[in-house]
Amino acid sequence: MRYAAITGLGMAVPERILTNADLERMVDTSDEWIVSRTGIRERRVVGPNDSTTSLSVAAGRQALEQAGLTADDIDLIIVATCTPDQFVVSEACLVQAELGGAAAAFDIGAACSGFVYALSVATSFIQQGMHNRVLVIGADTFTRFIDYTDRSTCILFGDGAGAVVLEPTDEPRGLLNTVLGANGTGNKHLYAPGWGAVVPESAELFPEYRPYLQMNGQEVFRFAVRVMGDAAAEAVERSGLTFADVDMLVPHQANARIIDAAARRLDLPREKVWVNVDRYGNTSAASVPIALAEAAAAGHLDEGDNVVLVAFGAGLTWAAGMVRWGVAGVRRLSPHRADAATNDLVVAVGEPVHG
Ligand code: UT7
Known about the structure:
alpha/beta, 4-stranded mixed sheet, binds oxa(dethia)-CoA
């Protein structure tokens, strides 16, 4: 049996910080309201020289470096995003152009669930022997699609990218199973109109047309609390494990109350749940790999640990999976590779990205 171990991680966020105090000056809100309803204190926002590509490339480079690989060693790049820099060509091709190499490249769009969807596709390709070394990136710059006069959405989102390198191993490592789901009838609860091929011809014909992210917060909240808990629990059960076997929950970082509900469903104490929503807000497809990179860099993940990933997002979509942490059985490509593929994988957490 072939598995796909995570051998390198990386993350990148923009240097610009937007605090709750900044937002108090922009809309009718308060730090107290934002913290008590969401847990968010600040978020990172792209500047004129940052882009989904620049963040993805920075995170991808870190992940490759940790794995002791170069872009030439990678044969597939998948980018999970719904805020690509261009609709034609794919974000993954823009990233490949910067990183170098000749990997196949394509995007996956499942909003905030996108990284777990992409990890599942990449793992499956490696398991089937179709690809060997895959770079999976989750990246979004949703602040470009936010109406900063709408207090119900502008407080929530930040920008960023996270990346992992997957390599084959005979040991049970990496993603062991996935629970993927979607309910397309919920598409109107969280969406950005007018950014695809179907664009209203004029605002006159479509007076309701607004180009920014639209959200029915309460509806999304109810959906998220239900699916995050159910999908995470299903991933644990499908692995033949119990909740007591879970070493770390790495959830999509949308709202601390949603994360708490998922943790309660798995009966997990706070120290087994990675939370960084206070510092980055909701970075959409980047949130799970950024959280994973931070948890690893902080030394919270050990060889053989059971790590549950879970996310929800626009679509409506959801995704969960059980990851067995570590690099056991991964064949070393080179002496450099052997040095790199240990557990002391160092991620430059919070390192700013310039241009
Ligand atoms: O990746 C998926 C992304 N989306 C999400 O994760 C969103 C999920 N939903 C949520 O996280 C929550 O629904 C929100 C944080 C968006 C809102 O929290 P809530 O507890 O559901 O608040 P609410 O929508 O029920 O609004 C309560 C009140 C309203 O005022 P009234 O009608 O009671 O007078 C809102 O107008 O809070 C008001 N409000 C605000 N007040 C201060 C809404 N946004 C704000 C704000 N500051 N930023």
